[in-house]
Structures are given as C-alpha cells and as structure tokens.
Amino acid sequence: MQQHLPAWACVLVMLAGEASAQEARSPLLDAADSRMQIGAASLVPTLRRRWLYADHKLVVGRVKDVRVSADGTTLIAVVARRRWLGGGEVGIPVPLLRQADNDLTVSATRETIGQLPLFKP
After folding, report:
1. Residues with Cβ < 8 Å from 73, sequence gap 6 or more?
2. Does some domain include residue 27?
3. What phi and psi, each to the nearest 5 degrees, are found at residue 100?
4. CA-wise closest residue to 114 among 83, 75, 72
5. Is 55 among the domain residues?
6. C-alpha to C-alpha distance for 109 and 89, rounded to whole angstroms
7. For residues 78 and 89, is the Cβ–Cβ distance under 8 A?
8. Average pLDDT rounded to a whole number, residues 67-90
9. CATH number where 54 lies
10. DSSP structural state of residue 85
11. 12 φ, ψ (degrees, to nearest 5)
C-alpha cells in the first residue's frame, strides 16, 4: 500500500532541504559582521553630508551614507557624485578617505572619479 504525502508536507521537506543547503555561519563571522555594522553606524554622523574633494580641490560630491561592502570586509562611503562627473551614487572605500585641514579628501583625478561604477546596495 503506497502512501502519499500531503502538499504541506512536501513543502516542509523542500524547505528543510534548502535550510540545510544554506551556508553555515560561525559565531566568529557573526561577531566580525556585527563589528563592521557598528563601525559603519559610528561613522555616519561624522561623514554624512560632508563634501568630498579629490585632487586640486575637485568637488566629487556629498557623502550620503556609510555601508559595509558586499563581501563584508570594508566600509564604503556612498557619495552622491556631481552631475558633471557622471552623476549617481558611487562607493568609495573609507580607508581611502583622508582629513586635510577641515576637508574630506580622496586621492583621485577627475577621470578616475568619472569612471567609478555606480553604487549598488
């Protein structure tokens, strides 16, 4: 005698299979991710709404946010790039930013800034 599983039981079996196929996270990875999120949150008040300048006082744009990179290893400043440099939001790694006098700067040329890919969250 053959028994058939109800539809809801099949869904549970499929979900259980997907759950076991998910990447196992270690407490160490969770702690590192948490520290990165805290680091990003602590930089937001310091960097948000500040103008970012490149070489020769070139105005790149205004910092809108600070986020963790997709791979979880770097903090990224999300900058609203000026229209004449290509417009849109670009991501610049926070370790590349410098404080010069009272200005937030990055060492880059007009061409480099114009070629940056748009930031995708």
Report:
1. 36
2. no
3. -120, 115
4. 83
5. yes
6. 17
7. yes
8. 89
9. 2.30.30.240
10. G
11. -65, -40
How remote is the C-alpha of 112 from its chain's centroid?
20
> What residues have CB less than 8 Å from 39, skipping those under 6 apart?
68, 75
Q: Give residue-wise pLDDT tens across range 42-55.
A: 788 888 999 999 99
User: Of residues 110 and 5, which shows the higher confidence score?
Assistant: 110
- Tally of domains within the chain: 1
What is the value of pTM for the model shown?
0.68
**Separation between Cα atoms, residue 116 and residue 54, nearest integer Å:** 13
Residue 110 belongs to some domain of the structure: yes
Q: Which domain holds residue 109?
A: 48-121
Residue 64 resides in a domain? yes
State how far the Cα of 47 lies from the Cα of 62, in Å rounded to an integer.
Answer: 9
Q: Is 49 helix (H, G, I), strand (E, B) or coil?
A: coil
In total, the chain counts a number of residues equal to 121
Q: Residue 80 region, left (φ>0) first, then alpha (ψ -120 to 50), else beta?
A: beta
